[in-house]
Amino acid sequence: MQSRSVNELSCDFSFTNTSSKPVSVRYAVPNCSCTTARWTQGEIAPGASGVVTVKYVRERYASSFEKLISVFFTGEKKPVILRIAGSFVDDDESLSSQFPYRHSVLGFDEADFDFGEVHPGQQKLHSFVVANLSQKSATLSFSGLPDGVSTIEPEFLIYPKSRKEIVFYYTPDSTSWGRRQCKVVPKVNGKESDAVDFKAVVLDDFSTLSSEQVNSGAYYSFASEVNHFGIIRSGSSASARVGLINESDTELYIRDVSSLTGGVTVDYPAVVRPRQKAWLNISISPSALVKGGNTILFSIVTNSPLKPYAEFEVKGVVE
């Protein structure tokens, strides 16, 4: 099979019962989830024919494919193996529309690298697909990868008018908590391109807890729904205190309190005892503030199964 800018292909395999007894297809099993099979139902009389229809849905990184389908017939111990193979020929318009985020001669299918939720000490994979939009082979590498992030190869070779899946592996350590965000720089043929955002949120893994353990775990609330640093003069630093109440009978561990805004620091206790109140002490440098109204977003990560991650704002005015 060869297809031009089509993402789904099907093929019919016809067969004839050459035996003296009726037969039927018990089932057909593809070797990949991207491939499905349908077949003639019921018995097929001697001399009669049936069909196995195979459908392949293009994997987003595939430029070519080869898939096997095992067909089991009644009365036969061994399956009949069917094979489908083919390649895709993408035109320029198709490639450009499917991979809209340009980096030199390469197109990415996503604007940033978002791992979502990850857990310390556990590896998580994130993949995206890159297409070479040019007529020459190109190389791709990355600089600025954060600690704990790696790729399977230091440099990837992408052939002309083809696609390639790029896989990142992230294993955060026990000191990495909360929102992790930085700039990763793709290098195409050795030259730097526009930076891409790397994003992740590192949280405790509560997947093995029972419902009872989750509901009896640490839980907290903020003492106030609104937090202010007040009204200050231009060029002055600001400070604020945010109250936090442990409403459970379990110790609350504060993993991280931070802001992506530069020039902001937070002093907080590592542990809040059951039914106690604690304070998050925030310091804001003048470089983090602009004249007029200011709203600074913070995130907090705790060992609370019901609220492991939360965000809060601190507002104020600079005259």
Explain the overall architecture:
The protein is mostly beta strands. The protein folds into three domains: 2-89, Immunoglobulins (Immunoglobulin-like), CATH 2.60.40.10; 93-202, Immunoglobulin-like; 211-318, Immunoglobulins (Immunoglobulin-like, Sandwich), CATH 2.60.40. The chain is 4% helix and 54% strand. The chain has two helices and 27 strands. It has helices at residues 92-98, 211-215, and strands at 2-4, 8-16, 25-30, 35-39, 49-57, 64-73, 80-89, 101-103, 106-108, 113-118, 124-132, 138-143, 149-151, 156-158, 163-170, 178-188, 191-192, 196-202, 220-222, 228-232, 238-246, 252-258, 264-267, 271-272, 277-284, 292-302, 309-318. The strands form six sheets. Strands 10, 12, 14, 16, 17 and 18 form a six-stranded mixed beta sheet that branches. Strand 6 and strand 7 form a beta hairpin. The longest helix is centred in the N-terminal third of the chain and has 7 residues, at 92-98. The radius of gyration is 29 Å and the shape is elongated. The relative contact order is 0.11. The model has no long low-confidence stretch (mean pLDDT 92).
Brief account:
The chain contains 2 helices and 27 strands. The protein is mainly β.
